[in-house]
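hiii, so i know i said id send this last week but things got crazy w the move. better late than never?? heres the sequnce for the chain we talked about at the cafe, plus the structure i predicted for it. fair warning i was half asleep when i ran it
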Amino acid sequence: MGRPAVVVRAEDKNPPHRVAHRTRSGWRIRVGTFAATAAMVSAGIVLGAGPASAAPAPIRLTSASCPNEIVQGQASGCVTELQTLLNAHGAGLVVDGQFGSATLYAVREYQAATAIAVDGRVGPATKSKLYATGGSAPAPVNLNSSSCPANIVQGAKGGCVTELQRLLIHHGYTVDVDGDFGAGTASAVRSFQSAHGLTVDGQVGTNTKRELYDTDESPSTGVDLRSASCPANIVEGQSGGCVATLQSLLNGKGQSLAVDGSFGPQTLAAVKAFQSASGLTTDGQVGPNTKAALYSNIGGGGGNGAPAPINLNSASCPNEVVQGQRSGCVTELQSLLNHHGADLAVDGDFGPLTDSAVRDFQAEKGLSVDGDVGPNTKAALYGAVTPPSSPPPGGGYAKILEVAAAEVGTVEGSARANSYGSSVGLSLSTSNYAWCATFVSWVAKQTGASSYRNTYVSGWVKQARAGNYHLSVTTNPQPGDIVAFDWDGGSDFTGGHEHIGIVRTALSGSSFTTVEGNTSNPNGGSDGVYVKSRSTNSGYDVVFIRVR
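okay and structure toks below
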């Protein structure tokens, strides 16, 4: 779905409390500095803090009483709430309702730590993240754990409800993550149950829990229209994830389309209306210019004129990104640098501070320190595993397991997880789409085991059954083979409820273990790359894919 735009500003010449550049011990000193600053702030000795006065009563940031963006200089109950939420994440601020330099610093630190454009402005993305990552809500608890009741019902409170609300948001429902199963959460549960063919009773029992954790291969709006996964021109009559993304983007521009993945007359009319309003040729065809306009001012650093991010390895970015350039490639670069510990405003403008951050990063990674972002620096920014210089066909399934297993514990939405999209041409947060097949594609790319890449499980099964791309179906799976699941049964892998991973241990009877991306954390918390226990007789269909 489209992500809310956030406003960004140009790089500050002297950003407040900017952390010192790389020291002899390594990359920027961030956590310790933040903690020390927080302690000083709480003691009232930072930035000339005076005696504390009574703070305005807190106001929920997402309420109509708070501005769309909360920025430095404001004073209100909205700031009181903001400071309280930041303190729940370890900021240690004096809660006075005054958005001063210390609060600005804490906002920027939080944004950098949670992969949000570091602009110091508390817009929709930052508000949502503050509540979604817990804030004052109880820590999430896996719904299938013994700590949660068999049926979670309206009126319940606690970490099980926090987890429920987090999962509902992952499926596209708008609820507050507060750990309180109120009317809004109950309404979202019923809507979810109705959409997934479950009994609509508002109770979160076994079947609803299972469907909530089945976040894989949901109707996709995660396909980037600018990637190789989509046609150069998307036209009436086409269907699929690219069309679903198009419809979602159009809705973000003021249309009211059903996101059904089918390019029909209503979608055509909406495209033409958008093209007309944007000064484009009104032909109803979604080509490069229309795609660029649709992605303008959308999330991840692309707000207030900042170019939308573009994967650095795409054909749209130069071989070397250098100082003086302004583009979506620079937006992406700045976001990646922030993931690695920089503290930049994400504005798409390669200025002196970005140059300094690039040089710091290059020095830390043992690269040539020239400030030019070429192939080696790009690879290091994405944290890519260096594949063999001439990967042999097939690559060997043992190598696949080695690479996949090294990723266990990678959390969804992190810079590392987001880098997997580079294998399929996506520059998108893994918090926004089903990425299990993207992870398998990334592993295959690192090992050279197969040249096949696809974001859909159905594609992997289809090619294996056809014997293409060094893939085939096997009934004797070995560690490093690929395994596809059809939760709905029928082995057609087309119902929108599929999943895929890497075999970790061979069959022992009907049981085996896997390494999977976009799967639930067995200890509760965010999805990511984890080891799972699976079986061939658990009511779903399983296909094992040999990589020759």
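btw The chain is about 35% helix and 10% strand. thought thatd interest u
miss u guys!!
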